[in-house]
Target: 5-methylthioadenosine/S-adenosylhomocysteine deaminase
Amino acid sequence: MPQTLIKNATLLTMCAQNGSKPFEGDILIEKGRIAAIGQNLVANPKATVMEGRNRLVMPGLINAHTHSSETFFRGRYEGMPLEIWLLYAYPLLMGPVIDDRLLYLRSLLLAMESLRNGVTTICDDFFDPPAHDLSRLATVFRAYEDAGIRANISSAAMNVHTLDALPYARKVMPLHLQEKLDFGPPMSADAYMDYCRSVFASLHGRAGRLNFMIAPSAPQRCTPELLQACHALAVDMGVPLHTHVLETKTQAVTGHEMYGKSLIAYMHDLGVLSRNTTIAHSVWVSEKDIAMMAEAGCSIAHNAISNQKLGAGIAPVRRLMNADITIGLGTDGVSSNDTARIFDVMRVAGLIHSVSGPDHDQWIRADDILTMATIGGARSAMLENVTGSLEVGKAADLLILDLTTLYFTPLNDIVKHLVYAENGSSIETVMIAGQIVVHDGRLQTIDEAAILAEIRELLPTHLAAHAELEARNAAFHSTMAEIHRRATSTDIGMNRYAGDPGT
Model:
């Protein structure tokens, strides 16, 4: 791969030395990595030289938490709390699995939208019931390899019956409905470990940018044996243990009802909180939870938009920041967000925390948000030595934005423009590992028009079948609504309500 030199650009490196302070300079890329950053750099005669005047070069954005399994459900649901929404987006009464071609296209569609909007790394915790299948996981890896994106990939693991992972469920749900939920024998921890080891042997590290992460769905949805086995293997392999914790009030009640403690305390007592542990959501954490997370070195994926759409509440991000907990930004799935744009999440995250109280010194600033979207997200994915900032030796995962567009005019403060004004439309070039994957608004790795046409042709039949599943699962709607009602009216002794973001 020849050298690439970007000259005379405005650089925003997000590294420890320069942080979010832009400066003028050049960046030299060789063999997919950043070889030098400075002024008046010289490349070899065969290098590709890109003029950077009036252009911003910054790290690619990191989507710290998403679910490609929702990509075909954009714009389908609203007005539902999580426990009800799950019935339709992830039906209890399941139908046939999505076929391999649609599985590939579904993953590719998420990658396409991500890349066009400046996301160079995604952490995809997709759902592929009823079993974990190596060939189907390989299909998702292949889609991301073809797109050119960097990704941590896993299919969510669980082995506790749905009704045993929800408070009040066995009491509230009529017996005739409970009898319909026969999922067969639960997966053992040993069986899942065998699967994971096969993935590490065959797919992990593919294309130099695709990794496997271990994703037990949530502590209440997994047996202690499965959680502990997942954590031990994650530590051994140096990958994240990626899980959902305390997204909703119902989940806050779950910990106290089932374990007599918060779910964070439950994980702490099992020994599965560590640097490897990445927690999606963290909305309903207490001060004691935050202290345990900080001591363990956990990371958080803050899903500012999906938490609002599903009425889950607002995570206490300032308190998490004050505890020095690493925070990344996630879109969550396209069904609970309706976009894969981290620019959208940055804007919302930059706004909602300003209602946390009258002490405006504690409000979250644009440079904090941009840190979460870049190096914070990389740390949450355990990729901080690879991506997330522009530094010599790191992968050349970067964006080039036009600073003469409407969204940067007049140009006052680049970081504030990025968080509050930009929507991704100023992006000219996206580069991953030194390869240009988007240029002048066009994907360079795949035929976007052909892929979209194929999706439009194949998807109506799939969505019609899914509509039938929705109709069947509507039988459980009133039960889930009652579980939500009971949980939200239950006092669990917390000092804050997550609808009030607190500080």
